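Below: protein 1.
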Amino acid sequence: MPIPLSRQKWFQVIIQVIVFFLIFEIWLNIGGIAFLCIQRFKDGKISHNPDIFKIVCLGDSVTAYSQYPDYLEELLNRDKKSFQIKVYNRGLPNATSKNVAELLPKILRDFDPQMITVMTGLRDNEQRLQKQNTESMLKGETRAKPAFALRTIGLLQEMLMNLKSRERPWILQKGMTYYRGWLAAQHPDDPQAIFFFGLNLAKEGAYEKALQTFFKLRRWENFIADKENIIGDFYIEHGRADLAQRWFEFVSSIPKLANSTVYLRLFERYQQNGYAEKAVFALKKALSLSQDGDILPTLKWSNYLAARRSFPEAENCLQAALGWDLTNEKKIAVYEALKKCYELQNQPGQAALISKQIKKLVTTQSKYKTQIWSTALAHGCQLVVLQYPMLPVEQVEREYNYSADIIYIDNQQSFEAAVKANGYFTIFGDFGGSVFGHLKKKGSELLAENIAQNIKAAIRRSKKTINSP
């Protein structure tokens, strides 16, 4: 007669089965993702096949740390064509227009592309960066992170991101949640254990219970400061803007963490959830907590005032910001808002005066941008100039002397609409560019779509010219 298994034995058997399936799933995922990533790295080598249309994306960290070149390649290759399109990301962190102008001849020699995209200017007026040598920048990057190390790190990061984003089978998710809950109970003083338990609850759909778990992190202010956007973004991406709002209300209740960024996020949530009075309160708090140089609260407040036809208050707010120690890029953003304010009041004379001020600020940037254009033209390469998200395209058109040979990409209205619909931090990861930041996945996809719509015709024309006898 078989001896019945005790409850403890049954529990051990179930745990072993769960662990086996978990390890098996991870092994399959790592194997499949590693193969795809290695294949992508192989495909990333410079191709000299004349049947391949090559595009090189140049710029600063907004390009270097973005996925939009990958999405652009995918979009352009969706249409069935007789040729393949390859897009290369050659963004360089902290690069100025001067660096890109100096680097461009080497890029054209190495890649021989038919098209280049350029998005620079954010750091052009920082004296420290203007003095940096392009060659030393490239060598410094190589010394700090050799090519092999870069490929290895990139491979591991992509595998981890893919594993994290994949949905687990129900039994594995339940097992992981129980395990994280047990760890949190065993280590009540470990914020990491509490955070991951809350994250697993949220992945199961227990959003309210997860939020209550996240509230237990209050003792660890520095930990919350590091994770606040991850938690808020998770709720937003899963359609729970109400819980994202409650989370940022909780964060703002901690004096050390109540800064302008948190209140700007609260402003977005109140605005999206239809709480007009609370939205105004949050925006005022963000404005009061902003430091000199932090112009985003000022720009949002002036937009609010202008929408209510309170033009004198909006003007005073913007004029006060111009008295701060701002980079030229931030000054241009404030001047553009002031110009828009005068245009809404039907004051073309005042708007024209502001345009002259903007023109003075962009003069230094034009020198190297003109050099970029002439170098590309001499090589017979189509130049595509991208304006940064949220900024008016007229600015870069002026800097490139309104050349008709250049394709200009306007990223203002589409990004403003996306931010209004989804929230700023769904599109951007920070405030690196005063009114925009480094792109998240949705921001990269949107930028790729904007570029693809504007360059498809030029690619077809270029390919016909190359293939003609």
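Below: protein 2.
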Amino acid sequence: MKGLRTRVLCLILLTGAPALADPPAADEDLSAKLTPVDAPTTQPEAAPRLVSRQVEDRIEVAPIGLQFRLPPTFMTWQKQFHNNIHVGPEALAAIRDGGGEWDTEYAAVVNAALPFDRCVAAAGEEGWGRDGVSFTDVQLRVYVLDQPIKELIERIDKQAPPAIAGLAHAAVGRKAPAVVHSQEGEWSRAAFTFTLWYGDYGGEAMVDFRLRRLGPRTVAAVFMYPPAGGRRVAPADIVKAVMASFALTEAVSTSQPDTAGLIDDLGSDDGDRRIAATRALLAMDKDALEPLRKAGAKQVSPVGTISTRRMDMVYSLLEGLRPNPHGARAGYASDGFGLRVDAGCTREEVVRMGVKYGFAIQGQFTPNACPTCYAKLQPGRKLADVLRAVLSDEPKVISVNLNYFEA
């Protein structure tokens, strides 16, 4: 029998999007649910392009100066597995929907209630979806719009119930879904409780939306978890800690003034610094290309060297790997790559990486060599996606290179 899995799923910042559709019925009275915090707000002149990055246990969102802290349990998992904190468009797109039990249903409800395309960061006590290992972890996401709380509550109230009713594993007949509205300090709450059943086990699930104004924007913290206990750290304590950590600092530039430091960290001997810098630069997307180019980064495709620097690979992934010219006698294989790992990294550890990302070691594994080994992708895996994931999440990987050929 599987245990209940606590899911605190989303932090959502909402800014700069057009008015949400599907208003509530004209005769619906929400006055009892709302407070003066919903006073009319002025619209910003334009929605800025948002860039998020992780700085130790803090997530910063530029240029709006928003920041919040990740709980200690999040950081404990990251130090060991490095797959539970996501920034940047591609990393977030990969965790938009759930995988397996509970996460699939939670994601369906949240994605129906609030727009995922505003997501700028995601994190959790363990990996999301099939990267998770238990039913008791807490997850977090962040988005940005400028709709007032009242409009967002109305949308949530309208969209969440039918999404819950449509879940394949929703045991509606066992217990009717329930919703609770309340006001807790500056946070407005709309919490939905419903039952999930997977044939041999199940339990009560909660999708807990918390919304407040912060500056000219609305912050919505949406937590997902089975209300049953059994955790060392209660979900309520994590919820309170995360909500209390939200703050606005002086607005910063999306160009990230410490870009030079991030680029330097790509070559650090410290694996954690390497992956933190990689994530931050990939999250900057095209804005990182010019600083990397000025630092001497080169495109590694379609031809290059097996002594590829991490800086060059990050630059190439941001710019896009170039295809092999038609009929070329030299280029690179699209179904494999080379890995250079730290001296203390074993073959068994790389095998486990392969299980995680979808590749298998091909040929010899030679410690201290460049590359240490080559890997072949499993069918259906995309080279650029796997390279991004390995560079962003594996501190024992120094760099990767393309598998070049020459006829």
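The longest strand covers residues 202-214.
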